[in-house]
């Protein structure tokens, strides 16, 4: 049969594949996943217990929306229920935002490199990406403000930034938000909020209270260690939140994900202690690599950025050989998740060997 299938929408031709090919573990020996910014700790026993209870009910649909979780988040964040939108990970919520708020031809301003989902969400809606290069490893907020035009309808901002781990801080962020016209929606992605311990950490939920054009996104995938269950949330003005809810996949957050997220919220002290240990490991790694002579910018996340330029592929291949699977941005740098102490020790010794040509 030579007939062609019907053509998908032409805008999809311009969409890069979202998932880069994962690094390949060596044929033998242990390997460490340091390429997706996952939490190296397994779920807490309380989360596992509730997951197995919820698993016994998978013959039943979950609610259209996870109302129990939405209530718990509204209480924790001290916002009305109507401001909270949940979804299958924050990437699911990005799709809801794109569908709800973007029209073909709209311009969307974001920094680059930043979260890899940005160009996909924008192009999927037929909107036009306007990418503003980072200055060094940080957002150039002046250049981003200068990139706004009458056609701009949205700004995407990852604070702290993925993949560089850097943050702009509350004062600069507020100055930028004040320069964005109120008809332009700003999506502030705080996926790494809990790992951000700098003194000037912005709190997007607080900022949204008197900024109806600000949507904040957070996730249970990183600090809460539930990446495999796909649950994230947004906080927004109720008009925006309602539009986002209209674009959600019904029952898109499973009962297992909802119950595990509730258990994680109930065990928050324990989880934040775990986050403290990851931050201590992050600082230990950064200091060790700095002593070896590698340039590693300070990070407010659970990963480090090594701006290696043309050397990125060579170093990534050497790490991969020892089972350290990192995310390579060819020609630019490596993004390396802070792993278990064992993985971090191996990373330190492997990079030391590379430095000394061993
Ligand atoms: C900035 C940022 N936002 C969102 C996500 C994805 O989060 P989720 O697992 O909630 O879809 C990631 C994952 O790496 C991320 O780095």
From TrEMBL:
The keyword S-adenosyl-L-methionine does not apply. Pfam families: Aminotran_1_2. InterPro entries: Aminotrans_II_pyridoxalP_BS, Aminotransferase_I/II_large, ArAT, HisP_aminotrans, HistidinolP_aminotransfase, PyrdxlP-dep_Trfase, PyrdxlP-dep_Trfase_major, PyrdxlP-dep_Trfase_small. It catalyses: L-histidinol phosphate + 2-oxoglutarate = 3-(imidazol-4-yl)-2-oxopropyl phosphate + L-glutamate. Keywords: Amino-acid biosynthesis, Aminotransferase, Histidine biosynthesis, Pyridoxal phosphate, Transferase. Its cofactor is pyridoxal 5'-phosphate. Pathway: Amino-acid biosynthesis; L-histidine biosynthesis; L-histidine from 5-phospho-alpha-D-ribose 1-diphosphate: step 7/9. Its EC number is 2.6.1.9. Residues 37-349 form the Aminotransferase class I/classII large domain. The modification N6-(pyridoxal phosphate)lysine is found at residue 222. NCBIfam families: PRK03321.1. Belongs to the class-II pyridoxal-phosphate-dependent aminotransferase family. Histidinol-phosphate aminotransferase subfamily. PANTHER family: HISTIDINOL-PHOSPHATE AMINOTRANSFERASE, HISTIDINOL-PHOSPHATE AMINOTRANSFERASE 2. Homodimer. This is Histidinol-phosphate aminotransferase. The lineage of its organism: Bacteria, Bacillati, Actinomycetota, Actinomycetes, Kitasatosporales.
């Amino acid at each position: 049969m030579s007939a062609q299938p019907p053509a998908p929408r032409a805008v999809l031709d311009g969409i890069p594949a979202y998932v880069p090919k994962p690094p390949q573990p060596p044929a033998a020996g242990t390997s460490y996943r340091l390429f997706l910014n996952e939490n190296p700790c397994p779920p807490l026993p309380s989360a596992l217990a509730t997951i197995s209870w919820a698993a016994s009910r998978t013959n039943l649909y979950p609610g259209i929306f996870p109302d129990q979780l939405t209530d718990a988040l509204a209480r924790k964040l001290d916002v009305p229920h109507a401001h909270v939108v949940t979804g299958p990970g924050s990437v699911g919520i990005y799709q809801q935002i794109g569908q709800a708020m973007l029209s073909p031809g709209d311009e969307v301003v974001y920094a680059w490199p930043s979260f890899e989902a940005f160009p996909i969400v924008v192009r999927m809606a037929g909107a036009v990406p306007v990418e503003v290069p980072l200055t060094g490893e940080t957002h150039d907020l002046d250049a981003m403000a200068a990139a706004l035009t009458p056609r701009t309808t949205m700004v995407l901002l990852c604070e702290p930034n993925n993949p560089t781990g850097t943050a702009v801080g509350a004062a600069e962020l507020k100055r930028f938000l004040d320069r964005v016209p109120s008809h332009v929606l700003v999506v502030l992605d705080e996926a790494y909020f809990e790992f951000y311990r700098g003194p000037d950490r912005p709190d997007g939920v607080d900022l949204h209270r008197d900024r109806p054009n600000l949507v904040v996104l957070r996730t249970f995938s990183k600090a809460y260690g539930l990446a495999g269950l796909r649950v994230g949330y947004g906080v927004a003005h109720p008009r925006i939140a309602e539009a986002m809810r209209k674009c959600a996949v019904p029952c898109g957050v499973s009962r297992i994900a909802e119950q595990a997220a509730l258990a994680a919220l109930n065990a928050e002290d324990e989880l934040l202690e775990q986050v403290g240990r990851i931050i201590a490991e992050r600082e230990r790694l950064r200091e060790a690599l700095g002593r070896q002579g590698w340039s590693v910018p300070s990070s407010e996340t659970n990963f480090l950025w090594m701006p290696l330029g043309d050397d990125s592929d060579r170093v990534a291949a050497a790490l991969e050989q020892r089972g350290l699977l990192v995310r390579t941005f060819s020609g630019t740098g490596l993004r390396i998740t802070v792993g278990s102490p064992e993985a971090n020790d191996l990373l330190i010794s492997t990079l030391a060997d590379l430095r000394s040509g061993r």
